[in-house]
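Progress against Task 2.4 (sequence-to-structure conversion) is shown through the following example record, which the project officer requested during the mid-term review.
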Amino acid sequence: MEKSSTYNYNVEPFTEDICGNLAWGNLGNLILRCASLHAGEHGFGYPQMIKLHHAWVLSRLVIEMESLPKTGEDFGIETWVDRLYRQFTDRHFSITRPDGTPYGHATSIWALIDTETRQPADLEQLPNGGFANVLIPERPSPITPMGRIRMKNAELVLTHKAAYSDLDINGHVNSIRYIELLLDYFSAELLREHPVHRIEMAYCLESYCGDTLEVYHDIDSKNADRHLFEIKCGEKVIVKGSVQL
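C-alpha cells generated for the chain above:
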C-alpha cells in the first residue's frame, strides 16, 4: 500500500461560495475527511484508535490556496504524514487539478488523546510501532507553518451562540465551523474583490452547545492583509486564527 493517498472529488452544486468556488468550509471538511480515510486505511483511524481508548484531536490547521476549484471541476486531495514527535504528528495535503498541478496545500498537527484520562498519548509507544512505517520524512510540508497571533488592539466583532448545527459527533463545535465564523467577519463584496489566500487555525479548547462564542479581530501590524482573530468563551480562548487576503 502506498504511504500517501489521493482522494478525488468534484465541485458539485450547493458546495460553492458566492463566487462559484468550492466554499472554504466544504474544503476544510474534505481535508479532514481525507485525513480520516488515510488513517483508517493504514490502521490508525478512528475505529482502530477508539478500541485502544484513544481519539485524534486537531491542534493546528493551515490551508493556503492560490485558487479554488470552481463549479463542476474535478480535483484531488493527496495526504501523507511526514513525522511524529512524542505527542504530536504532522499531516500534510496537496489539493490538485486532474493534471497534477496544485490549487494549493494544507498542513496540520494532530494529537492522540487517551479518552479515559484525557491526557495526550505517546505516539512513539503505540502497539506494533504505531504508524511509523507510513511516515514519509523526505516530504515535509509544502507551505510554511502557522505564524504567531499577536493581538494588540482586539475588537469584539461577532457573537455566536453555539447550537445544534455547529456540533460534531463528539458534541463539540466542529473544527471547520470556527473557520466559517472567522470568514463571517468579512463582507461578501470584499471577498469578491480580495479572495482569501491563507487560513491559519490553532485549536486551544473545546466549546459546546449553548456556549456564547465571542470573535475578536485585529490587523497584523506587519501585514495589513493578515487579519488576526481569537474566539473566546468567557475568559477562555477557544481558537486563535488568521485569515490572509
